[in-house]
Specification:
Length: 139
Amino acid sequence: MADERWYEQLESTIYTLVCHRMKKALTGKTSKTIKFTSVGENDAQPYFPTCYIHELQPVETGQDIVGTSINAVIETMECIVYCRDKSECKMILNEAVYQFKQLGFSVTAMPIISTSDNIHNGVARFRRIVGGGDTDLTT
């Protein structure tokens, strides 16, 4: 393993890959530019549509008998979309599902959309084991 602390960069690497691919795939398919973020925000002026992608608590796995390094983690990512239009929310979430599947993630919570005060909020979760030598996410 070239970098023994490879796991520290997983969230930013996954976020960058998924956002780049989603932007490319969704260009021209939405009425407005989608705001992508990995930071939960409490904006006074919310922006729609917003796609919030972030890491949930990772768990170490694949321990060896020595136990001095992290060999693999169970990585869980969450995607939350906020829109004024339900069909747009669904389209963005479905693209997130597609892009996470392209990276080898399992969908642990299929997209579900709820509505409150004419704001549509969709959530999906994804999980996969990432090893220290997985070149698709750790280089």
